Amino acid sequence: MFSRFSVQVGKRYALAAKGSHLVSFISRMSVMGLIISVALLILVMSIMNGFDRELRERILQVMPQATIYKREGIANPSEIMAELNTHSQVLASAPYVTLQGLLSHANQVAPVVLFGVEPALEQKVSGASEYLRSGSLQVLSGDPQGIILGGALAQQLGVTVGDKLRLIIPHGEARAAAAVQVFTVRDLLDSGTEIDNNFALINLAQASSLSPHPGRVSGIRLKVADLFSAARTVHQLSAELPPGFYGKDWSRTHGNLYQAIHMSKRLVSLLLLLLIGIAAFNLVTTLIMVVVDKEADIAILRTQGASTADILSIFLVQGGIIGLIGTGIGVLAGVVLAYTVTPAVAALERLIGFQFLHSDVYPVSYLPSELLWGDVGLIVAVALGLSFCASIYPAWRAARIPPAEALRHE
């Protein structure tokens, strides 16, 4: 269908610098619309992929991926851990105690979710060490008065490493006095996520002594091989353990955030795909005007032996080249933006002294981005496909122009 003749003529029509100024202007606007739409879609999908990655690689590295509990606490965690570790999906396990309380320093008070951990075992299931300023959980080993605070929480309380603060743990009984303990800040955790706002770590034994069930642990944290099979893994483990044990996975604690990210990605992608469709179908206007502008040329080609298929091919080639140029430049711009948006936004925040994302509102405190080439390939296929489809009607109309009628007014 696409002969050498039709390809050459279509290429000349698409790339010609001379001609009607109005047609050239509309053609440039069509290409510009396609470039902007493709670039924006790549950028936005990369940002949504970045939020997805941060949920998996930051939040779920610090917070439990899956946990096994017992209502009155677990008295024999080592035995239960040995049984849990035999499951094919369990990579590692560690006991922990969770408490809720208040931290006080000077005139500042803030709520805190406290985790008591065993540093040697916790490092096997958690990536928290990667976000510590000193780089190790071992500062809590053998230190019952040491505490690691989230960076945002420490800023809110106005404390830094070496400062002392009070931990207040309320008891369930109405008339019981709250437990008060003095801790020394040993390190700060900066994950850049919402965790930093109310997160703290202390020694496991000390946390257990402050809990309603001293000498026991609240649960056993698991690191699983497949995050998306965590719910099934927890269900299987709970069924294999003695009565009284139950489990919870990350989809119960952070599943809403994960679903919100993916729903936003789908909705925004749909909207931007519609923009690509609008930009692509602007080619219809461009090519119709080209057909009107080139009626005499079309008639001369027909009189010189060009067939209806040749004329049809010429304008399909022209539309395809315009779509290819717009899509190609849009992909290049989108890839560059996807790779540079994180440092560019960070630099802009430092320049103007204003932070766009705050971890008390958004999951992370910076703008993440992750470019997936599969997404780029899909965007290219859709943009080129729509551009080709938009060229069909103008090409068909050009092929139906009667030569005699077109030359009558020339």
UniProtKB/TrEMBL annotation:
Annotated membrane topology: Multi-pass membrane protein
Location (main, coarse): membrane
Domain ABC3 transporter permease C-terminal per the UniProt entry, residue ranges: 270-403
Residue spans crossing the bilayer: 31-51, 267-291, 311-329, 336-356, 376-396
Top-rank lineage group of the source organism: Bacteria
Keyword Lipid metabolism belongs to the record: no
Pfam families (UniProt xref): FtsX, MacB_PCD
Coiled coil: none
Compartment(s) of residence: Cell membrane
InterPro entries per the UniProt record, alphabetical: ABC3_permease_C (IPR003838), Lipoprotein-release_system (IPR051447), LolCE_TM (IPR011925), MacB_PCD (IPR025857)
GO process annotations (BP): lipoprotein localization to outer membrane; lipoprotein transport
Keywords from the named record: Cell membrane, Lipoprotein, Membrane, Transmembrane, Transmembrane helix, Transport
GO CC term (a single one): plasma membrane protein complex
Domain MacB-like periplasmic core: 29-237
Family in the record: Belongs to the ABC-4 integral membrane protein family. LolC/E subfamily.
The protein, known as: Lipoprotein-releasing ABC transporter permease subunit
Organism, as annotated: Gilvimarinus xylanilyticus
